[in-house]
Amino acid sequence: MKYLNLPSPWGKKEKEFWFNEQRIQRSYYEEVVSEITALSRLYDVESYGALSLAPEKYPLYLIRSKNFDSKKKTVLITGGVHGYETSGVHGALLFMEKYAVKYFGDFNFLCAPCLSPWGYETINRWNPQAIDPNRSFYPNSPSEECALFLSVMNKYKNDIYVHFDLHETTDTDETIFRPALEKRDGVVKEPSEIPDGFYVVGLSNKPQADFQKSVIDSVRKVTHIAPADARGMIIGVPIQSDGVINYDMKKLFLCGGFSNAEYSTTTEVYPDSPEVNAENCNLAQVMAIVGGLDFILTKI
Description:
By secondary structure, the chain is an alpha/beta fold. It has a single domain, classed as 3-Layer(aba) Sandwich (Aminopeptidase), CATH 3.40.630. It contains nine helices and ten strands. The chain has an eight-stranded mixed beta sheet. It starts with 11 loop residues before the first helix and ends with a helix.
């Protein structure tokens, strides 16, 4: 009977009401931009635009290897596609600050550490227009965050060899964001069990199982890996191996599928576990990148 009592999907008025309910809870400038600009001693740092909501508050940055070398493989790291997924942002910055130097001789690096700065400040999955950026990586995207990113990536898209897209799966995915999605779209979404631990999502059309396993084995050194549920699944998707599931990322317009990278993985940290803290979550993101790059070095 619940299907008979669904509200109508949100229109402009309801989306504006939702937007006005959101509150700034932390500072993008103090917590993220300050770290990005500090990296200018190691990298070229450029702004590739700003959110029209408040351009002075929400500039967007790309961190790029100095002396970009076309003979090297290019690594792309993205974080903060969903602004509330904190370790995706700070794990990317931690890797670029302290770990990437080990790989400077072998790779070029591109890093967009926080694609959704308003989402970061409001601890939100959606952007100001109640759009999920991570379903919006396609031409003429209605998500400004995605459109600006895709624009700056045009000149690099064909050069990306490996892409690490850093995410989290949180308890609020079920307690806040699934109910909000039901209201926004006027649909019923079946509840999903939140995995207790780290997992990754590969591309169903290019799964690269050995690469994904190397990522998982590296992360296992610092945090626990999510087990499959009783049905052998993680978030409703059959597991391929320990901590690994696959999506058709291009069909879903996910960030991890926007390019034709040879290797791509979307990480999912579980920050609500009593076994972890913020430092550990950031390090799990770092170790995912390290594990993936160490694997690729055996192949090139």
